[in-house]
Structures are given as C-alpha cells and as structure tokens.
Amino acid sequence: MRRLLRLLASAAGTLLAASLLVWGLAELSPGDPARQVLLSRGVAVPVETQIEAVRAELGLGDAAPVRYARWLGGALTGDLGSSWRTGRPVTAELGERLPATLRLCLTAVALAILPAFALAFAGALGRHRWPDALSRGVMFAGAAVPSFLLGVALLEIVVVRWGVGRVVADGGWADTPLPAATLAAGIVAQWARVTRGALIDAASAPFADVSRARGSGELRVLLVHGLPHAAPPLLAVAGMTVGGLLAGAAVVESVFTWPGVGRLLVEAITARDLPVVQGCVLAGVLAFLAGAVAADLATRAGDPRL
Amino acid sequence: MRASLLAGTAAAALLAVLALAGPLALPDPDLPDYAAKLLPPSAAHPLGTDQLGRDVLARLASGARVTLGAALAVTTLGAAIGVVAGGVAGYARGPVDAAISRVVDVLLAVPSTLVALAVVGALGPGLVHLVLAMSVAAWAPVARLTRSHVLTAATRPDVVAARMAGVGRGRVVLGHVLPGAFLRVLAVAALGLGETIIGLSGLSFLGLGAQPPTAEWGQMLAESRYDLASSPWLLAGPGVAILVAVSAAGLLSDWLGERL
C-alpha cells in the first residue's frame, strides 16, 4: 500500500514537472496569444482596445507564477483552454479524437503479441541456428524501417495497387488493419528483443538445468520457467510502448489520415495552435505515466518477492 | 562482430561519399525542369526525376547533407549539453545536482518523441527548431551517465592522488575524470543516432522539419507521395537511403556497445 502511494506520488511529481515544461514552452513561444484568440473569434485585424480587452480576459498581465497556477488549476479540472483555430474547448477536441487513437493502438498491441512471442521463442529455441538468425534479422529490420516508410509503402501496395481499403481513413474498424499493422511492426521488434534476451538468460540459469535434469524438454523449460522470468522486463517495456503509443501514433496517423490524437497534435503544431499542442502533449505524458505505473503494479502483483 | 563493424563502416562510407562528393558531381538538386517531370531511371537520371523534374539522385545527395548533418548535430549537441550538465551536477553536488537530476528524471520519464513534438510545437516548424527540439530530448541519458561517472570517480586512487598533489577539484574533473568518460559517452550518443535519423526524417515527413524546396529524405518522400502510383522509383531513393543510414548507425553502435 505504501509502495503504491510512493509510486503514484512519483508519477504525480513527474506529471507536475512535465506540466511546468509544457506551460513554459508555450510562454517562450513567439506571438501574442490575445491576437490568436481574436483571430479564432473571426477578428483578423483587431484594434488596440479589442486586444487590451482580451489580454485582460486572459489575465496576460499577471505575474508568471499566477498565470501558471491558474493554467494548472484549469488543467486539473479538465479545462485546457480553447483552440486558437476553432475556438472550441481543447478537452472537447481531444475527447473527439481519443476513440480513434484508442482503437488504433489497442488493435496494434493485439496484432503485435503473437508475432513478438513467436520471434522470441524462435530465437531462444533455435539459438545459434537459422531460426535465431531469422528472428534477429526480422527484429533488426523492424527497428530500422521507419513507420512512415512502411506506412507509405503499405498504402501504395495494398490500397493503390490491390484496391483493398481506402486511402483516406475515417477511423472506423474497416480502415483499422493497415495503420494498426504499421504501428505493430515497430512494437513487435521491441517486445521480441526484450523477451528473447530474458528467455536466453533463463535458459542458462541453474533452475533451467534442474528442470532439464528432471526430464523437461527445451520448450517446457522456456514456457514454464522462462516466461515468468521474462515477465518483469517485458511488462516494463510493454507499459512504456503502450503508454508511448499516443505520441508514437502521430506519424502513422498522419500517413493514413487517421482522425486520432496524434494527427491532431501534428495539425495543431502546423497551425501554431498552442492550447491544443499543450493538451495533446499533456495527454501523451499522462498516458505514458499511466502505462509505466500499470506495468509496475502488474509486475508487483505477479512477483511474490516484491 | 567483425561482420557488423565491416557492414556498418561500408554503409557509413557510402553515405559519406554521397553526402560529400555527390553535390559536387551532380546537377543542381533544386533546379526544376518541367520538360523532364517524373522520368523513370535512365543514364541521364540514375534514380529518375521527381514531380518538378529535379534529379532524384542529386536531391538524395544534397538531402544526405541535410538529414545526416542534422542527425549528427542533434547527437553532438545532445552529447555536449549532457556532458556539461552531468559534469556540473557531479562536480557541484548539493542543490545544483538535485535540480539537474530532477530535470533529467523528468526527461527520461517522458517519451523523447513527445518532448521533441512539444518543443517544435512551441517554437514552430523548421529544420533548426527541429534540431533544437531533438537535442532537448537527447541530452538526458548522456547527463545521467556523465554525472555517475564523475561521482564514482571521486574515490578513485588516481583522482585522490591528484587531489593530494594539490590539483583543484575543477581541474581534476576536467583533466582527469571527464576524458575517461569519452568512449562511454560516444557509445550512448551513438545508440540514439539511428532513432534520431528516423525521428528527424519522420517529423520532416510530417512537415515539421525541413521545408520545401530543401531536399531532406523524409520531406522528399512526403512530396512524392501522390505520384507513387505512376512513379514508384520516387519511394525507392529516399526509402533505401533512410534504411541504409539507420542500419549503419545500428550496426556501428552495436559494435561500439559490445566493445565496452
């Protein structure tokens, strides 16, 4: 229980520091927020009194700590300000895009599990023989091929050449497989490498020799003794990848015009829509920390020593 | 392990020749020729021409300078900031160390792509901004390594001897401790090089880095996307270049990592 509290406190500290970073970066950014807000309200060429009124409304004249405290208070109660492009609340824009991103990321994770384990077991069982070489080759390729290259190539071959699916995705299930597979390719390489390493470690441990002496086959040694051994590092990496997907999906979502949070972030950066950028980055940090905490809790729950 | 060193060195040498000698020998990469749009590979244009009739090989070579130059800049800048911050933290200790370590912890606890996106979001798109943004994300691991190297060195016999001989603490850190961290810093920095190349070309692909008409590999790929159906060679040029560069970085950092 005290462990859990300490874990949460440390995550909250990181989140607080990240919020200071996100807020401070926006402060450093060139441009006058008042003019941007007026622009979003349809006032392209404001007069001085209008700018003054919005400055007072936004409280831009206050000292920096006061403004940060006000912004943080708003963020904690779900108010991240309004988009400079659309004038709508940032939380509404985020909420609209979140389901598509969740669908994409969860599908990618589901797709990645089986190939990752297959590669890891091929590598560990066939160590120093062709299955290991093959699995290492696939892992190296998976890490070296950037997702935008794979995505563009897949889109070109599957959609344009074969005529399967659509070029512009609407975020529904029918369009999910291709972007999810693109996202999954990177995850597979990462998970397989960690699992293979842990399985190989386990196979040379004393408990594996004991198990072999009692007549277990190599597969049984890996399944019964190797997998639990591989669980903690795999869980840690899995938590980080799942939590990091919100950010990592930005590229894949943009390639497939997927209406998710990642693409919202890229659009907001291009349009210099700072409140939306802040909201997306904070959501990404929150997701990443949640993934890390969940992985930590799962490890503790599964390991009697902790 | 010799094989990965050989392959990595060969690929890196190939890219170096392309980046250094290519722009001297090839036609102007930014000069459009509307009479020669989307030509397939031929003797005059070994990798074909793009949607504005520019020579793809020439753009690939000048893009090598941009992409690889920016990646090396990020790595160097990140390593430099990391060594200074880590060295200062390890030397000063106390509240300075606590402050720097806290920032490092936060940066390491957040995905580096997200940090880079946040910084580019604040500064605005552009190649220089992207390089700065990725350096902000890249220095933390080097700082952590350097700090621990400096802290553990305090009780080393040669360091104690130097202190007893009257050498000041600052000179000990600069002259006796930091040089020993060089190879390890290099290994940690090289480890991130492949990911930096992917990140740079990826964010440029999204339009957040190099802007047209600058040739950059990810940016080239983005520009030619809509002509791939008729001209698939436009994918091959920058695609293979990125793959070769990332593989070379991976192979060399693997080799370096196992040497230490």
Automatic annotation (TrEMBL), chain A:
Domain ABC transmembrane type-1, residue spans: 98-299
Keyword annotations from UniProtKB, A to Z: Cell membrane, Membrane, Transmembrane, Transmembrane helix, Transport
A Pfam family assignment: BPD_transp_1
Location(s) in or outside the cell: Cell membrane
Keyword Transmembrane (UniProt): yes
Gene Ontology biological-process annotations: transmembrane transport
Membrane-spanning parts: 100-126, 138-164, 234-256, 276-298
Record keyword Transmembrane helix present: yes
Membrane topology: Multi-pass membrane protein
SUPFAM superfamilies per UniProt: MetI-like
Cellular-component GO terms for this entry: plasma membrane
Family label: Belongs to the binding-protein-dependent transport system permease family.
Protein name: ABC-type dipeptide/oligopeptide/nickel transport system permease component
Biological source species: Nonomuraea dietziae
TrEMBL record, chain B:
Domain ABC transmembrane type-1: 64-253
Record-level Gene Ontology MF annotations: dipeptide transmembrane transporter activity
Location (main, coarse): membrane
Compartments, as annotated in UniProt: Cell membrane
Residues that span the membrane, as ranges: 68-91, 103-121, 181-210, 230-252
Signal peptide, first to last residue: 1-21
The keyword Repeat is annotated on this UniProt entry: no
GO CC term (a single one): plasma membrane
InterPro entries given in the database record: BP-dependent_transpt_permease, MetI-like, MetI-like_sf
Keywords: Cell membrane, Membrane, Signal, Transmembrane, Transmembrane helix, Transport
Membrane protein topology class: Multi-pass membrane protein
Highest taxon listed in the record's lineage: Bacteria
Family that this chain belongs to: Belongs to the binding-protein-dependent transport system permease family.
Protein's name in the database: Peptide/nickel transport system permease protein
Species annotation: Nonomuraea dietziae
Lineage: Bacteria, Bacillati, Actinomycetota, Actinomycetes, Streptosporangiales
